[in-house]
Specification:
Elements: E1 2-6, H1 18-32, E2 36-42, E3 50-57, E4 66-73, E5 77-83, H2 104-122, E6 126-130, H3 131-135, E7 147-151, E8 160-161, E9 176-177, E10 180-181, H4 183-190, E11 193-196, H5 199-204, H6 215-219, E12 225-227, H7 258-268, E13 277-284, H8 290-296, E14 306-313, H9 315-327, E15 332-336, H10 340-349, E16 352-355, H11 365-371, E17 375-378, H12 382-387, E18 400-401, H13 407-421, H14 424-436, H15 442-456
Length: 459
């Protein structure tokens, strides 16, 4: 089976957010299952490939030359980079000030047209598109190869000027959006199957309040909309082999987590304490509920607990976290930015892990936390519901799920988690259940393979 897989990001080659991790993990698992996957990414520049072959790409829509650079990347394997002078950028989406490139619509429409050109000349059994950046490929070219579109984040739809619809060679009317062109809306309509990145999220997006304006289009897909939970890279996220943490450990040697807990205290400048450490690794944006976390800080003393935050994002939220850390140095520590090694140490050294998202299509951090024995405290949204079992509602509990997505819900869930932490027997049972679950990409990849087989008619 030959699958053409197109994405704006793919770890570790191009990594901005969860799209990169999900795309990279799925591709690796599909290849491990002997699926022939051709990976297409934009050529953002600066990427060297081994055994590179470069060819001109015929995309009639653009007068300037486009190319396809194929070769081997050490972290990805075989990959094809679609480029032109217009596509090359130091960052996929934003300039040095964090503002989106003004021509992002043209850049990703151009990439989508390039994907369609490769599809039409290679005749794959299945085309797998990801998010709005590639969704318009379904409207370019002539091929009718079965198409899968994965929605990683419904809130980003790539809405562009209406003039783009005159460039599409099929299904242009599906892209019309209140006088503009909506790549994601059109891609959903034209795809043979639409995948949401968790079962619960596939239900949520059918509702007006969480469908980001696309709920009616998604409802129309009926059984063609499915939810498949993402996995994580269990090779990278493995406390038994992790080179970043203070001491390696497993579910049978949980006492060795203490070294990582002490390491976090040293980084934060905290004195010795038996109070639980609440870790956070997050983008600092409204979606992630960071304001709810800030509202919980005044309650840390009475819980009691200490908060260790790693993240970057909106200036206002960043400033508030800096202020909270300065005002409460014995309770709050904030590292502004992203540090891979520190993220590993937070998962290994935190007793609890907070993830107060307002919406979360799948979420990876809660799975990474459980893999390391940090007990998750989450809101009842998206993939968080599919992955975390509330310990106050089930004997099979692995964490705590807030009863509502607001300050009251989060603070209550944190209080419940701290109470459970004080019972070593209950705490360790939750930790071992979370660590014992298979969070890898093996099962999700098999679900995708079954989907490909259904569409292609191949066994």
């Amino acid at each position: 089976m030959r699958v053409l897989f197109a994405s704006a990001e793919l770890a570790p080659l191009v990594r901005v957010g969860g799209l990169a991790e999900a795309a990279g993990g799925l591709v690796a698992a599909l290849r491990a299952a002997a699926i022939d996957v051709t990976v297409l990414l934009p050529d953002y520049g600066g990427v060297a490939l081994r055994d590179e072959a470069r060819r001109a790409l015929d995309v009639p829509l653009w007068a300037g030359p486009m190319w396809a650079r194929s070769g081997v990347h050490p972290g990805v394997g075989p990959v094809t980079l679609i480029g032109s002078d217009d596509l090359v950028r130091p960052h996929p989406y934003v300039d040095s000030t964090g503002i989106g490139w003004p021509d992002n619509d043209r850049r990703f429409m151009q990439f989508s047209a390039g994907v369609a050109a490769v599809r039409d000349t290679t005749n794959p059994d299945v085309v797998h598109l990801n998010d709005w950046h590639t969704a318009a490929a379904a409207a370019f070219g002539d091929s009718v190869a079965p198409t899968v579109l994965t929605i990683h984040t419904l809130g980003y739809q790539g809405v562009a000027p209406a003039g783009w619809m005159s460039q599409f060679t099929r299904g242009a009317d599906h892209f019309e959006w209140f006088g503009q062109a909506n790549p994601l809306a059109g891609g959903i309509s034209l795809a043979d199957r639409v995948v949401a990145v968790s079962p619960n999220y596939s239900s949520e997006i059918l509702r007006r309040e969480s469908g980001m304006g696309l709920h009616e289009i998604l409802k129309a897909k009926d059984d063609a909309l499915v939810g498949i939970l993402n996995g994580i890279d269990t090779t990278e996220w493995n406390p038994r082999t992790d080179p970043h943490i203070a001491a390696r450990y497993s579910a049978t040697t949980l006492e060795d987590r203490d070294a990582s807990r002490r390491n976090l205290a040293e980084i934060a400048g905290w004195g010795p304490s038996k109070e639980p450490v609440i870790g956070v690794v997050s983008r600092l944006v409204d979606q992630k509920g960071i304001d709810l976390l800030l509202a919980a800080i005044p309650y840390l003393e009475t819980m009691p607990g200490r908060l260790f935050v790693l993240g970057s994002g909106l200036p206002g939220l960043t400033r508030e976290l800096h202020d909270a850390a300065e005002a409460n140095p014995e309770r709050v520590y904030f590292h502004d930015g992203y540090d891979v090694a520190l993220a590993h140490r937070i998962f290994a050294g935190s007793d609890l892990f907070a993830m107060p998202s307002r919406f979360e299509p799948c979420g990876l951090a809660q799975m990474q936390a459980m893999r390391y024995g940090a007990i998750p405290v989450v809101t009842p949204v998206g993939g968080l519901v599919d992955t975390v079992i509330d310990a106050d509602a089930s004997r099979a509990g692995t964490g705590f799920v807030a009863r509502s997505v607001d300050e009251t819900g989060l603070i209550d869930a944190l209080h419940r988690a701290v109470r459970a932490y004080r019972s070593p027997r209950r705490r360790q049972a939750m930790q071992r259940r979370g660590m014992g679950h298979d969070w890898s990409w093996q099962a999700p990849a098999q679900q995708h393979i079954e989907l490909y087989r259904e569409l292609s008619g191949l066994s």
